[in-house]
């Protein structure tokens, strides 16, 4: 009877949850304005950088190559998964209740999972693209066909969607009877698990398994691709040729390092310092989407030339 009563209480508590409270950053109220302005600045740069990158790639025929096709999709993903997080976080800096509806939390959780996993697979596809371009340049246009590029991007979205559907459905099947207060600035896995009074063993095992199935294959593809790339580049006799080959990969390596470094720190370290976890999560929710277009535009001659050409064209029209 006690077990039955406990189950009824958990079910009741779960059904009664209509919203959550996003605590955000535990700072003095007067610092909320500063944080709001910081978030606004970063989000504005994300919008300008990623929309600008997509416009440049779409309208410049010289960028109609597999590398820029992937880069355009990377900008699209960065734009949308940061938009899942940033606007709500900025609203909560001014809100007294800091609430998010149950449906809103589910949606935010699902979309963020979808885009972050998709980006991981897309970065692996981009590493494979660089491997073919440098190690087999004569066969590049044949091997990296439009059909294959579309398949790789579609496959990335498919893996992201399947993973996010399963993770979201299992997470929100939990009974949230401990509290409605999420100690984070968005709906994330660990803070939600802390609110649950359900047995988390199955969820944690499934999450660990899926993390392994996502992270290890993508990391292996990236590492193996770059081992072949380094081996090939070192055989190039001229220093200029080696520098040119490495320059096409340095931007991608920078993006991979920031994303995987932040995610690894966030989910592989003990969950004992929530405030530190919030700062780490900023790296991949806002910092990475802001830096990606800057990294690729500042270190890429073709993107800079396309940007100058677009600006000149606009100036002529005006």
TrEMBL record:
PROSITE patterns: G_PROTEIN_RECEP_F1_1 (PS00237), G_PROTEIN_RECEP_F1_2 (PS50262)
Main location class: membrane
Superkingdom assignment: Eukaryota
Keywords: Cell membrane, G-protein coupled receptor, Membrane, Olfaction, Receptor, Sensory transduction, Transducer, Transmembrane, Transmembrane helix
Positions of the G-protein coupled receptors family 1 profile domain: 49-296
One GO CC term on file: plasma membrane
Membrane spanning residue stretches: 33-56, 68-86, 106-128, 148-166, 208-234, 246-267, 279-298
Protein's cellular compartments: Cell membrane
Entries under Pfam families matching the protein: 7tm_4
Topology class, membrane: Multi-pass membrane protein
GO molecular function, one term: olfactory receptor activity
Function summary: Putative odorant or sperm cell receptor.
Family: Belongs to the G-protein coupled receptor 1 family.
The protein, known as: Olfactory receptor
Species per Swiss-Prot/TrEMBL record: Bos indicus x Bos taurus (Hybrid cattle)
Taxonomic lineage from the root: Eukaryota, Metazoa, Chordata, Craniata, Vertebrata
